[in-house]
Amino acid sequence: MPRKNRRQSEPRRPTSGAQDPSLIDGPDGPVRVRRIPGSNAEKVYRCPGCDLEIQPGTPHVVAWADDGDGDDRRHWHTGCWNARSRRQPGRWR
């Protein structure tokens, strides 16, 4: 009888599509950050970095204060989020 070399199946993690929020240091304290894939981006948002709209289907970043209740969430273009350190200090809209 031939031997079957099959991979052991790994348990699959359930995913919501968005990555779990991570904690980073922001100019006004700790900030939670979540990356949203384009497949989960369903609404239009205004980016505080460039003041342009983030269209549905565009991957982007959501950031909010760690000590807040989430009402201060802001949706950023990924490029604008990555360039935030080159902007004026304390200039988070």
From TrEMBL:
Disordered as annotated region, ranges: 1-32
Name by which UniProt lists this protein: ATP/GTP-binding protein
